[in-house]
């Protein structure tokens, strides 16, 4: 589908409602496109959809590049909104992989009673999933860059497992424990 308005344009409301009704997770592109188009792909538009459709799971692509703070705040405030961290963001921020903690800042506040934190808040990096838009021969390099981010931001092994697949398994209703015990 080619979007001719922002994602939260009311003309797309039937699409979001149907996806929510079907339990179909969505992965809209955020950030910029190869052709330079970007204004309608801001992560804030996904926040509007997530807030209006609380049972719709959304995984925004590319962590909203270049609107990282906007993407992080949208994910923090909406329990059904996640982002992948892939593409040029990992390349352009490779020399400063610790910068992501600046955007994904709220982990120490989980469980604290404050009006600034949603009651269903989860640790910051649990809102990030691994993805790649690289060719197969560049996949290993993408893993290296993503691991560099996880290392620089002291992401636990438990949360890494979530980033690398357990979050997506949960979203898609895959019982990983039963699969592992059957092997």
In short:
The chain has 183 residues and is mostly helical. The chain has helices at residues 13-22, 43-52, 68-77, 88-92, 100-103, 139-152, 157-171, 176-182, and strands spanning 58-60, 81-84, 128-129.
Features:
183 residues; mainly alpha; TIM Barrel; three-stranded parallel sheet; 8 helices; 41% helix; globular
Description:
This protein has helices spanning 13-22, 43-52, 68-77, 88-92, 100-103, 139-152, 157-171, 176-182, and strands at 58-60, 81-84, 128-129. Helix 2 (43-52) packs parallel to helix 3 (68-77). It has 8 helices and 3 strands, in the order H-H-E-H-E-H-H-E-H-H-H. The protein starts with 12 loop residues before the first helix and ends with a helix. Helix 3 (68-77) links the parallel strand 1 (58-60) and strand 2 (81-84). It has one domain (10-182): Metal-dependent hydrolases (TIM Barrel). It is mainly alpha-helical and 183 residues long.
Please write out the topology.
Elements: H1 13-22, H2 43-52, E1 58-60, H3 68-77, E2 81-84, H4 88-92, H5 100-103, E3 128-129, H6 139-152, H7 157-171, H8 176-182
Parallel strand pairs: 1-2, 2-3
Catalogue the unreliable spans. none
Mean pLDDT comes to 91
Instruction: Assess the beta-strand content as a share of residues.
Output: under 5%
CATH topology: TIM Barrel
Shape: globular
